């Protein structure tokens, strides 16, 4: 069964305006899905619907086999589908790194012995060794987001939802977090849903959902979406620099392969170009 | 001035005092307070002074640092002493200046209360200097646990305290940012009358207040997303270990207490 199933989802904060309208999609096990869109497109609201922080007005959201409307299984659902938020400062609860990583485990009632092992393992996995007793305010933005990720991976989730988790970070912090996402998805098979307005980050995903004014505008591979000029214009998304550059070069008559997606591909193509 | 207040600052160390369980430290200090406040016996009090001195020496806190930190608080001690000195009218007259009379009772009472306060301040400061705030919160939570039966929300209180500890530095940072932003727009915090300076703080406090509420909301959502559902069925990551030395120090204090009560009665 697919870990995330969204059927005819609509949502509104107030009676007048629907923030989300008739959204349908599924996410497969181990897939990396990017949800892109401009500010106010409803992408963060959609993320909060996925783990039951917001309830659908109509339609269903079934995450990890559990309907978000079911109050009995909601805690279990949230343990299986962890979430990293945008503001690194406002999601760390405990006074030290180790305590914060343990927070979710404490909530789940994991016995002390196992908790100790899992905390250690998670801290190591997120490359935070040696920072166990550090206070959150003495960490860099990238480190804070990795602590948040560690707190989630300690619960051994099936799905991790990142709600613009890299948008407030500097380039170094962004790379740190993206590297962790790569490891978690590609090596450990955890399903990743990343909400972002950074198209470069989205270009790495297996699939890209484009949101516009509360509706799902496109659902395809990033490669395919980058070809659809009208979708990009409507959703106010700009192409990643390597994609844009290779296109401009092609228009100038330089014969590069189609669909260059990353800087590395562009560099390789240019080196082979005669 | 604030940077000289050392209550609440933890000084890392490996001394005997550091290694005690926060619970035993809290119990010990609590018992000690009670005993020195009921006792008037010079022998009990002087042994209390010796005990405090011994605790201070074993804790290995640099004396200069300590002295600088408690200097300001000692004003309270001096003030209380002076008040008692002039207000008590017992015993024989030591000094009569017409408008003011000092009695021997005042000298004794003043000295006694000053000594008690002095010891209290030293011990309270030492407690926070040798125990991390996290351990202290934890210790208090466990000691308050029996109160849960009478519906005191001990888990919530402890969580509030630990979140406060977590966010104090963050909020301080934010305050500095706002102060800088307001200074850049021409606000002045160090000039003008006291009234003007107090007024200048309003444009700092309001944004701070607003953003704190935003933070609180974000944090609540994050906690919910991480499966927080109250203290019920929760396990603890932090374990406190009560060792022989803790039992020893608490029983020693109890003995000291019995001793001080006996001297008070007889």
Automatic annotation (TrEMBL), chain A:
SMART domains: AAA (SM00382). It comes from Alkalicoccus daliensis. This is Energy-coupling factor transport system ATP-binding protein. It is a peripheral membrane protein. It is found in: Cell membrane. InterPro entries: AAA+_ATPase (IPR003593), ABC_transporter-like_ATP-bd (IPR003439), ABC_transporter-like_CS (IPR017871), ABC_transpr_CbiO/EcfA_su (IPR015856), ECF_ABC_transporter_ATP-bd (IPR050095), EcfA_1 (IPR030947), P-loop_NTPase (IPR027417). Residues 4-238 form the ABC transporter domain. Keywords: ATP-binding, Cell membrane, Membrane, Nucleotide-binding, Translocase, Transport. One of its GO terms (molecular function) is ATPase-coupled transmembrane transporter activity. GO terms for cellular component: ATP-binding cassette (ABC) transporter complex. Its main location: membrane. It comes from the Bacteria. Belongs to the ABC transporter superfamily. Gene3D superfamilies: P-loop containing nucleotide triphosphate hydrolases (3.40.50.300).
UniProtKB/TrEMBL annotation, chain B:
Its main location: membrane. One of its GO terms (molecular function) is transmembrane transporter activity. InterPro entries: ABC/ECF_trnsptr_transmembrane, EcfT. It is a multi-pass membrane protein. Keywords: Cell membrane, Membrane, Transmembrane, Transmembrane helix, Transport. Signal peptide: none annotated. The chain crosses the membrane at residues 20-38, 44-63, 70-87, 107-129, 247-265. GO terms for cellular component: plasma membrane. It is found in: Cell membrane. HAMAP family: EcfT. Transmembrane (T) component of an energy-coupling factor (ECF) ABC-transporter complex. Unlike classic ABC transporters this ECF transporter provides the energy necessary to transport a number of different substrates. This is Energy-coupling factor transporter transmembrane protein EcfT. The gene is ecfT.
């Amino acid at each position: 069964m697919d870990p995330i199933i969204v059927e005819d989802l609509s949502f509104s904060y107030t009676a007048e305006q629907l923030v989300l309208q008739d959204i349908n999609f599924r996410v497969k096990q181990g897939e990396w899905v990017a949800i892109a869109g401009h500010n106010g497109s409803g992408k963060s609201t959609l993320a909060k619907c996925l783990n039951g922080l917001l309830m659908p007005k109509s339609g269903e959201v079934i995450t990890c086999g559990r309907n978000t409307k079911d109050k009995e299984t909601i805690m279990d659902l949230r343990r299986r589908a962890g979430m990293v938020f945008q503001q690194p400062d406002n999601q760390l609860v405990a006074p030290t790194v180790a305590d914060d990583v343990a927070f979710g485990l404490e909530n789940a009632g994991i016995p002390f012995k196992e908790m100790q092992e899992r905390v250690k393992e998670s801290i190591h996995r997120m490359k935070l060794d040696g920072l166990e007793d550090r206070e959150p305010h003495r960490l860099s933005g990238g480190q804070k987001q990795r602590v948040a990720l560690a707190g989630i991976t300690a619960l051994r989730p099936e799905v991790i939802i990142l709600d613009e988790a890299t948008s407030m970070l500097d380039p170094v912090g962004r790379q740190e977090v993206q590297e962790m996402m790569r490891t978690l998805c590609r090596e450990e098979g955890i399903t990743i849903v990343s909400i972002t307005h950074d198209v470069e980050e989205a270009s790495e995903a297996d699939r890209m959902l484009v949101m516009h004014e509360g509706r799902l505008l496109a659902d395809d591979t990033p490669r395919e979406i980058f070809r659809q000029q009208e979708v990009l214009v409507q959703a106010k998304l700009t192409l990643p620099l390597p994609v844009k550059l290779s296109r401009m070069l092609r228009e100038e008559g330089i014969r590069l392969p189609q669909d260059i997606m990353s800087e590395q591909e562009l560099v390789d193509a240019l080196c082979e170009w005669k | 001035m604030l940077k000289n207040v050392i209550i609440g600052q933890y000084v890392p160390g490996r001394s005997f005092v550091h290694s005690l369980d926060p619970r035993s430290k809290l119990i010990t200090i609590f018992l000690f307070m009670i005993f020195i406040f009921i006792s008037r016996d010079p022998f009990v009090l002087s042994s209390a002074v010796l005990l405090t001195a011994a605790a201070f020496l074993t804790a290995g806190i640099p004396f200069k640092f300590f002295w600088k930190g408690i200097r300001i608080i000692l004003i309270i001690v001096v003030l209380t002493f002076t008040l008692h000195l002039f207000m008590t009218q017992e015993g024989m007259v030591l000094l009569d200046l017409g408008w003011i009379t000092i009695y021997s009772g005042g000298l004794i009472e003043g000295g006694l209360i000053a000594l008690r306060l002095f010891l209290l301040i030293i011990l309270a400061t030492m407690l926070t200097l040798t125990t991390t705030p996290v351990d202290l919160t934890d210790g208090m939570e466990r000691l308050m646990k029996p109160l849960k039966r009478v519906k005191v929300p001990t888990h919530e209180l402890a969580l509030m305290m630990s979140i406060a500890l977590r966010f104090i530095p963050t909020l301080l940072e934010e305050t500095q940012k706002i102060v800088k932003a307001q200074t850049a727009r021409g606000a002045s915090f160090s000039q003008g009358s006291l009234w003007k300076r107090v007024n200048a703080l309003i444009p700092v406090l309001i944004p701070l207040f607003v953003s704190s509420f935003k933070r609180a909301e974000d944090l609540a959502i994050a906690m919910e997303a991480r499966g927080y559902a109250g203290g019920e069925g929760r396990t603890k990551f932090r374990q406190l270990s009560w060792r022989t030395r803790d039992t020893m120090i608490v029983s020693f204090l109890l003995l000291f207490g019995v001793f001080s009560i006996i001297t008070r009665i007889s």
